[in-house]
Amino acid sequence: MSRLLRLLVVLGPLAVSPVALAQQDVGTYNRALSAFNEGKLDTAAPLFARLAEGEDADLKGKAEFYLAQTFAKKDLPVAAFISYAAIVNAGPTHPSYLKAIEGLVDMQQRLDEQNLIPSILNQAYTDEVRDRWVTLPKEVLARINYLVGTASQRRMRFEESRSLLEAVPADSRVYAKARYLLGTVLADPRFPGRPGEGETLDKEAIAAFQAVLNTREPQVELPETRELALLALGRVHYRRGEYADAVKAYEGVPRYARFWDQALFENGFARFQNEDFGGALGSLQALHAPQFEGAFQPESWILKATVYYYSCLYDEVKTTLAAFDERYGPMAKQLEPFTGEDVAPIQAFNLVASENRRLPRAVYLWIRNNERIREVMRTLSRVDQEKRAISEGPWRGTPFAAQTVASLEDIRTTLLQVGGTLAKNRIKEAADNLRTFSDQAEIIRVQTALDEKDLFSEGVDQKALLTRQTLYRPKMPGAAWNYWRFQGEFWIDEIGYYQYTLKRGCPARQEK
């Protein structure tokens, strides 16, 4: 054996020098970038992913950013969000740090993701980086302030949330959403400074809600934000005892809009407190129409019974409470298996995410209508869609596809935990509500029986008292209005315009 051959046997294959490796990586990067610029994204992505695992810090940073950009251009926003988030979490020393923040905000908008991305931005938005973040494009910074303000509000860091939301300028597309959330923060009873500064905070909250109503397009989700602002405005006025103003706000919510049923319910309370018993029952009449058959509003029946009770119409009280028991009594029993501590969050989420077979329909729809749960379901659907696209597409069977799908699966697991926690809390809230209102129904039932006994003891003939009274047509709001007597049929163009007239079964009391 020659000396040269012996050396080859001992050394094995010739090692590639670091310089050669660096040149090779540069070549790979140039090919990947060229493919990216030519729109050959299926070629570019695996090359960028390979470089992102390399040792060259400069190439690694560029490749990580371009990989995220490639995912975004291929309409894989969840995969892009994962890549952008990794850069943001790496910190401000990353060469593509600020660009990744822009990309993350863009993916949040495309996905309408309200749970994970705001949390990531909230953790990253530290004092160390604030001076750098202000150099971001104006609209990007506005959205960051809104998203981080949302995260702060959920964590009850109200003053921090206020500062962030007030920083959203009027020309931002999220201005209306930021103003609505600002008003909600200021009106929160837990906001620091209450009750001493309550009057000032209430006025600022009302001004914030009015700003939403005065905002014009283009805005993100402006119609729904206006509805929420009207509901919030009504709640502030109601809490302040300004019941007529509360009624005006609630009645401003458009008929058949998403939050109209909630507006009808709360308007019933406002009208009741404003001593408009007929108006309160009119709002509840609309809420109890067949069009709202799937609504979960147990308290509305307690309010209806309360209105009748205050008018001493005891037969109507008992009829209303019987209707409450018939509708909501079985729901309480049906929820019992799903409210224990042994129910896992993912099990709770599966109850509301799949076709309903076990939860009461009204509760099922009420939980699914929660915006955060809806968002989790939307994002999970998008994750599954992207997993299929990657597993069945041009990258099928490659290590790159396996790695990307694994990252998507991690996000899916996290979303299931978030959605499961939300669903479990919502199921418990429904069960607690049913228990609370069943207790209130029993109190009204007992008090009604006691009052009937008192009337009998006093020799009051309530039936004769009611027979002597005359029911008059309600006052017409204007010349364009017509009166139609309700005869048991719900016409779609009449729902929401009901007004009761009531007799009063309470005997006049002699003043002593």
- Average pLDDT, all residues: 91
Derived structural class: mainly alpha
> How many E strands?
0
Oligomeric state, counting identical vs distinct chains? single chain
Q: What is the terminal separation in angstroms? A: 130 Å
Q: Tell me, what's the shape?
A: elongated
**What integer value in Å does the Rg equal?**
31 Å
Can you give the helix content as a percent range?
55-70%
* Count, helices: 23
Low-confidence stretches: 1-21
Element-level helix/strand string: HHHHHHHHHHHHHHHHHHHHHHH
> Roughly what fraction of the amino acids lie in strands?
under 5%
Biggest sheet character: none
Provide a concise account of the structure shown:
This protein has 512 residues and is mostly helical. It has helices at 3-11, 18-37, 41-52, 57-73, 77-90, 97-111, 116-124, 130-133, 138-154, 158-166, 175-187, 198-214, 222-239, 243-250, 260-273, 277-287, 298-310, 314-335, 345-353, 361-368, 371-392, 399-457, 462-467.
Q: What this model shows, in words?
A:
The protein has 512 residues and is mainly alpha-helical. The chain has a domain at 293-466. 68% of the residues lie in helices and 0% in strands. The chain has helices spanning 3-11, 18-37, 41-52, 57-73, 77-90, 97-111, 116-124, 130-133, 138-154, 158-166, 175-187, 198-214, 222-239, 243-250, 260-273, 277-287, 298-310, 314-335, 345-353, 361-368, 371-392, 399-457, 462-467. The longest helix is centred in the C-terminal third of the chain and has 59 residues, at 399-457. The N and C termini lie far apart (130 Å).
